[in-house]
């Protein structure tokens, strides 16, 4: 299933790279065919029912109503973030992941929870949205009611999506614990606070109100709250950790290849523009995969064009530097050669003088030796004569 065809092209304006939509759509089609064929095989195998009945959870997963999630996995050259970001980010996508009318939403709000319940129960709040909000719970009641691990796990299994008031989102980390924050159902932040304005400008709250924000929390109008929730449901949540690999859910097996490709394109753009440091320059590869499939590499996102240009620039720049360096080195060498030549000539002249002096000294010593030898010869002749006489 793997493919190493590049899926980036250089454009005249904006980002120097973008996805090749044809290539992404081909990869999406191949992955969806693979997932659907596997699901059909599971449904055939599940047709042999046991005597227990149809209440088994695995039976629900094998039913045609079950749709497998599709994930976009991107690999970077360097860590995306320095530490865990427990507050999810959001990327708007054209095709919602939460369009099912049977979707179960749990809304966690700042206190008092009764204010939010009144907002959702208001006649101006859309009925299609309020029917999917099954639970509204305030932060203080959440802390009191869900203290045990088992109760939190039950809460996690009862709902599909958890939305949390942006004012208390970070305090949920300790309250809900790792059972939530190690899953894909981490609470997604929504801005539902009432914004006080005077002459079109926001009013800053004093320190007392900040300290007592739980007791004095106020909520926006039903229309604004509904719009914020709908907007969040049309986003793909982004969970980032200090690693070179991250995954974002971009669709499901019920999507068409065109819908999946459109979501992939939106998520990749959002990641490179908002979340990934240095954007495309930090992206190494992109895969798509199902929940139970191998990751499918639909393209290497190596910045080959830019790298080649940089290499050419570096090579030409290095060549110019080498030429300049050679010129400088030649000048330096010529100066050094002149110095060496002059010093060699001085040494040669000095050696010649020493040699001439040595020769003169040799002649003097040889003359002295010859005179001594002559004297010694005359002395020996006299002694010989005396001995013969």
From TrEMBL:
Biased composition regions of type Basic and acidic residues, renumbered to the chain: 309-327, 346-375
Chain segments carrying region Disordered: 1-62, 309-389
Positions with biased composition (Acidic residues): 53-62
Top-level taxonomic group: Eukaryota
Transmembrane segment boundaries: none
One Pfam family linked to the record: Ribosomal_L1
Composition bias, Polar residues: 1-28
Coiled-coil boundaries: none
Protein name per the record: Uncharacterized protein
Record organism: Aspergillus sclerotialis
């Amino acid at each position: 299933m793997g493919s190493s065809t590049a899926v980036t092209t250089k454009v005249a304006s904006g980002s120097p790279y973008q996805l090749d939509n044809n290539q992404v759509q081909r990869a999406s089609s191949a992955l969806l065919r693979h997932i659907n064929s596997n699901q059909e095989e599971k449904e055939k195998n599940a047709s042999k029912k046991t005597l227990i009945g149809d209440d088994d959870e695995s039976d629900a997963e094998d039913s045609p109503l079950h749709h497998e999630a599709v994930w976009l996995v991107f690999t970077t050259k360097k860590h995306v973030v320095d530490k865990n970001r427990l507050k999810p980010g959001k990327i708007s996508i054209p095709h919602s992941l939460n369009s099912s009318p049977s979707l179960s939403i749990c809304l966690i709000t700042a206190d008092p929870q009764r204010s939010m319940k009144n907002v959702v129960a208001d006649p101006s709040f859309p009925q299609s949205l309020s029917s999917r909000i099954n639970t509204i719970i305030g932060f203080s009641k959440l802390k009191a009611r869900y203290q045990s691990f088992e109760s939190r796990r039950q809460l996690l299994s009862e709902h599909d999506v958890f939305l949390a008031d942006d004012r208390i989102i970070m305090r949920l980390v300790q309250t809900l614990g790792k059972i939530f924050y190690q899953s894909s159902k981490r609470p997604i932040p929504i801005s539902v606070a009432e914004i006080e304005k005077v002459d079109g400008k926001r009013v800053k709250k004093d320190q007392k109100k900040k300290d007592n924000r739980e007791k004095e929390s106020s909520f926006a109008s039903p229309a604004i709250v509904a719009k914020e929730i709908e907007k969040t449901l049309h986003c793909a949540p982004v969970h980032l950790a200090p690693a070179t690999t991250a995954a974002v859910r971009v669709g499901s097996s019920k999507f068409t290849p065109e819908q999946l490709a459109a979501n992939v394109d939106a998520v990749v753009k959002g990641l490179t523009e908002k979340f990934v440091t240095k954007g495309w320059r930090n992206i190494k590869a992109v895969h798509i995969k199902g929940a139970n499939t191998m990751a499918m590499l639909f393209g290497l996102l190596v910045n080959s064009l830019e790298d080649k240009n940089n290499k050419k620039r570096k090579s030409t720049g290095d060549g110019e530097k080498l030429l300049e360096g050679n010129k400088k080195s030649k000048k330096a060498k010529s100066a050094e050669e002149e110095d060496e030549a002059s010093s060699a000539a001085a040494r040669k002249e000095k050696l010649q003088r020493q040699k001439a002096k040595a020769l003169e000294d040799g002649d003097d010593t040889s003359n002295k030796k010859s005179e001594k030898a002559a004297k010694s010869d005359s002395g020996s002749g006299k002694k010989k004569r005396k001995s013969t006489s």
